[in-house]
């Protein structure tokens, strides 16, 4: 067993109250870090903070903010950093998604995903920079395969997440001299999550999805959390500006096969039945 001591780390997970991001926050808690989470919903924040405490976080706290509202986000992050003693690790993962054809969704639908995923990421980065413990802080953006692979009904997400990865790469340049590393993780399809429920909503679509992953299984939040632990550790001290798939090989081509099933789903077919 590999033992990783995170007891000296202060970790902030934005969008950390469900799914993959909550799994990341909980893994850091299990390894003894101080962990804070933020999202739009007070009950989800409260529930996550209770879980972080139960799992062994040296400190656990949370606050409500919508990443689209810079002022609220900044105040919440400043208060959290003050309570913890600055941030050593920040994970930026708040996002929204729904399948919708570009020619059919409303302009506001497209804008809502850009506002949450892309501008929200910029808001997080803009607000955290003065709060990072430098040198040595590690920042992680949670991206998506759509950043690299076009998919039917995902133009809004592709545009937003490609932008997220370019923010990551640009900030690696801007922040490197102060000893801050920043990387993106591209998760594959992760079991039990809202993202997968929205994009592969039937058992048949799910089956095709699993078959399309070279490693022949869905990922788990822990798979993504493990990569975050690595990026937060000294083992990754020379890695910055990287966009890292943690996806069982999905971006090697399988994801394109699943993209085709989205198209069938939208047309009312039952793929894989
Ligand atoms: P999820 O469970 O819906 O998690 C989204 C989190 O972000 C929740 O904590 C949500 O809490 C928060 N959030 C949403 N909108 C927000 C906003 N405007 N301001 C602040 N917080 C907000 O989704 P997930 O499927 O686990 O996905 C998590 C991340 O992984 C996303 O970045 C997604 O793009 C990426 N990803 C997922 C998969 C997958 O298989 N699921 C694959 C590739 C990439 P509230 O509702 O309380 O705000
Ligand atoms: N298809 C097409 N358009 C949709 C849609 C769908 N399934 N769901 C929402 N929209 C449109 C709405 O109609 C609205 O446009 P309009 O004002 O022109 O009618 C626009 O998107 C914004 O919707 P709204 O519900 O007001 O936004 P919100 O800020 O409350 O929620 C979402 C943002 C839409 C992204 C919502 O799905 C969300 O909160 N998602 C977070 C969880 C999630 O997506 N998890 C997976 C992460 S990968």
Automatic annotation (TrEMBL):
GO BP annotation list: fatty acid catabolic process
GO terms for MF: 2,4-dienoyl-CoA reductase (NADPH) activity
InterPro entries cross-referenced by the UniProt entry: DECR2-like, NAD(P)-bd_dom_sf, SDR_fam
A matching Pfam family: adh_short_C2
Entry keyword set: NADP, Oxidoreductase
Highest taxon of source: Bacteria
The family this protein is said to belong to: Belongs to the short-chain dehydrogenases/reductases (SDR) family.
PANTHER family noted in UniProt: PEROXISOMAL 2,4-DIENOYL-COA REDUCTASE (PTHR43296), PEROXISOMAL 2,4-DIENOYL-COA REDUCTASE [(3E)-ENOYL-COA-PRODUCING] (PTHR43296:SF2)
Protein name stated in the entry: Short-chain dehydrogenase
Source organism per UniProt: Marinagarivorans cellulosilyticus
Lineage: Bacteria, Pseudomonadati, Pseudomonadota, Gammaproteobacteria, Cellvibrionales
């Amino acid at each position: 067993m590999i033992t990783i001591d995170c007891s000296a780390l202060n970790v902030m997970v934005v969008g950390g109250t469900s799914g993959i991001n909550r799994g990341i926050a909980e893994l850091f808690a299990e390894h003894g870090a101080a962990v804070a989470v933020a999202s739009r919903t007070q009950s989800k924040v409260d529930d996550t903070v209770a879980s972080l405490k139960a799992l062994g976080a040296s400190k656990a706290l949370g606050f409500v903010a919508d990443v689209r509202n810079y002022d609220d986000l900044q105040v919440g992050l400043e208060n959290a950093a003050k309570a913890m003693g600055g941030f050593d690790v920040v994970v930026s993962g708040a996002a929204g998604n729904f399948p919708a054809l570009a020619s059919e969704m409303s302009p506001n639908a497209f804008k809502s995903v850009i506002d949450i995923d892309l501008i929200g990421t910029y808001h997080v980065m803009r607000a955290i920079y003065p709060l990072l413990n430098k040198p040595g802080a590690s920042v992680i953006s949670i991206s998506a395969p759509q950043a690299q692979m076009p998919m039917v009904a995902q133009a809004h997400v592709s545009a937003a997440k490609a932008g997220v990865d370019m923010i990551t790469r640009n900030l690696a340049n801007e922040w490197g001299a102060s000893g801050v590393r920043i990387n993106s993780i591209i998760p594959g399809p992760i079991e039990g999550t809202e993202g997968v429920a929205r994009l592969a909503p039937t058992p048949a679509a799910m089956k095709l999805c699993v078959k399309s992953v070279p490693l022949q299984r869905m990922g788990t939040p822990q798979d993504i959390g493990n990569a975050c632990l690595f990026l937060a550790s000294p083992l990754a001290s020379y890695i910055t500006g990287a966009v890292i798939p943690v996806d069982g090989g999905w971006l090697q081509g399988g994801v394109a096969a699943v993209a085709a099933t989205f198209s069938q789903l939208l047309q009312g077919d039952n793929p894989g039945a």
